[in-house]
Amino acid sequence: MTMTGTTSWMNPYGPVDTTLNKWTRRVIETHFDPDTGTPFWLDWQEAQGIDVRARVTGFDDLTDIFEPFDEDVLRTLPVEQFVPRSLNGERRVYETGGTTGAPKRVLMRDYWRQQARWMARVLDHWEFPTGNVLGVAPPGGANNAGTFVQHLAHEWGSLPFHVTMDPRWAKRLSERPSREEFDEYVDHLLEQAERVLGSQSIDVMFTTARLLERPAVRDLVANSGIDGIIHGGTSLDRDTYRVFREKWYADQTLVGEYGNTLMGVAPEVPPTISAPEDRGYHLDYVPCYPQFVPEIVDDDGGLVDYGERGTVRLTVLNKEFFLPLFEERDVATRIRGTDPFPWDWVRTPATGEDAEQNAVEGVY
């Protein structure tokens, strides 16, 4: 069964206004077209001796055809092999942070602009302040985070500002016996943020939960005109989240987002849709269905029951990029969604035990 038990849902806020089954068919047609499809998937199909377009009628068929995706392919394969030949225009290479091994690379054109538009529409439910955005320590360069900040500001007709972090360098510093150099690097990032805030009008800050825990960041926000904060990049426990909302950032509209370079963005569910008292300071995230479908699965690959925790298995269904059944390093709780987002939500994702030793939970 699919993540919702049905495939009839449509996302009125997303870039795709169709059902999951129909959208799955469109994506499969794009990537497995013999003339204009994706080289990697066409080679894979030939090696398997099957006709994927003939066998896929909907989302549920993917688990019958594909094995869990091997992420190392994205570390070694030339990126041109993983996009359909029909994808023209100004394409861009994106990389994952590279904190758990060599970075994975993908090639996309419009996807992150679409994700920013999705985020902006969900933020409308929060009555979130709009205006100039300062990204404090999202990775720049080939990483998607800096690009996302730029597109989000443009959705509001505003300006993006950036303080860029190198997550690979942060990982190296965090592994050293002394924390002194790591803390100096964080101070370096915050000094740059202070300079921006000292000369520019900034309404929204995009940063990480770990940075929001630091007293220097609390002071930075308190002494600025920042009215809204979007945080992501790391897991956040309920007790810290409660302190964020009730004490440290009570004067700002605080919204979380769960996502990464391969997945896209899942904003925190607005309180107007799911009342805070019902959530008990859990962080619930709503994925941009059907562009990507995170399923919460057990050790055998089956969906866990609602309210149960399991591994996040991700399927990206995009005409620019197709990634089936990719098992993330995260664990999360499966939550039944409600209107206007009736598909499954993801609650309180956190790094799984098997990945904790290789993950960076500091700045990032």
UniProtKB/TrEMBL annotation:
InterPro entries: ANL_N_sf (IPR042099). It comes from the Archaea. This is Uncharacterized protein. It comes from Halalkalicoccus jeotgali (strain DSM 18796 / CECT 7217 / JCM 14584 / KCTC 4019 / B3).
